[in-house]
Structure formats: C-alpha cells, structure tokens
Amino acid sequence: MGKVLHIRRKHIPLHIYKNSYDENNNKLCLNCGKPVIGRRSDAKYCSDECSWDFYVKNNWRLLRIKIMRRDRFTCQKCGDRRSRVKMNGRYRRNLQVDHKIAIFKGGKEFDESNLWTLCVSCHLEKTRSELRERFTIRNTIHDVASYPYTSFANNIV
C-alpha cells in the first residue's frame, strides 16, 4: 500500500501527493518547492521542518479549529452562534467548516481563504444547491461535434 500519513482516524495515502521536478530533474519539496537533495530517494520534503509544516497545514482537524476561531465561532451566512443544536432528539455540533468554492469546481482543499464557518442549516442548504448544480452539469448533453477526436472521424471517407 505504500506510506500513509495518519491523521486522527483518517488515512491519506502519500502517493496522492506527487512531487514536481525542476529542469535538472531534481525532485522538489512538496512544502516549499526547494530541491530535495541528499535525502532518501522516496523523500518528499527537503527537511524535517518542511515535513512537519506540510503536515500541520494539511491537517483538517487543526485547520478546522483555526477557521472557526478566525470566524469567531459564527455562521458566516446567517450569523448563528449556537455551538450545539438538538437534531433527532440528540444534541449535535451546530457549526461546521465548509469550502466556499467546492472542490469539484476547482476550489483548493486546504486553502484558508476558501474555507468558512457555517451552521448546519446553511451548510445543508449550500450542499443541496451544489448537488443540484453538479447533477445538472453531469447530465448536460454535449455537442459531440465539438470534441476534437470526432472532427477527425468526420473527415474519413
């Protein structure tokens, strides 16, 4: 399976993070972009500090708390500040962190400027509208003649 970065109970396989290479074919650090020189061949970072920095930046649990603090534990759509709400007879967390621009639309997963705090009802409303939009996009019939590989087939006699 390869190396795995363990974050709480979720596991993120490290093979999804691909290193880039410079013009001299040196592997570049995932965190800072400097060449990874003098380390193991499977190393992804130029130093232990970069490895830790990357882990902290890409740790959803820590980032979630940071975003909620930044937003002062307030829903950014409706202003709700309740920390708990009763749903189906049980008390649940009311505030959640969500992506402003959905990942499927090209939003960055761990970018702080793309994250905001929403209450459960606002988050549910936003998610429903995104699902409707995504379903519409997926089921749109495309003009087949507009695809480049079909134009070649049309020229065959």
Main traits of this protein?
2 domains, 157 residues, alpha+beta, two-stranded antiparallel ribbon, single chain
Describe this structure in words.
The chain has 157 residues and is an alpha+beta fold. The chain has two domains: 1-58, no CATH class; 63-141. 30% of the residues lie in helices and 17% in strands. The chain is built from four helices and six strands, in the order ββααββββαα. The protein has helices spanning 48-57, 60-70, 120-138, 148-154, and strands spanning 4-7, 10-13, 84-87, 90-93, 95-99, 115-119. The strands form three sheets. A two-stranded antiparallel sheet has the order 1-2. The protein has a two-stranded antiparallel ribbon with strand order 3-4. The chain starts with a strand and ends with a helix.
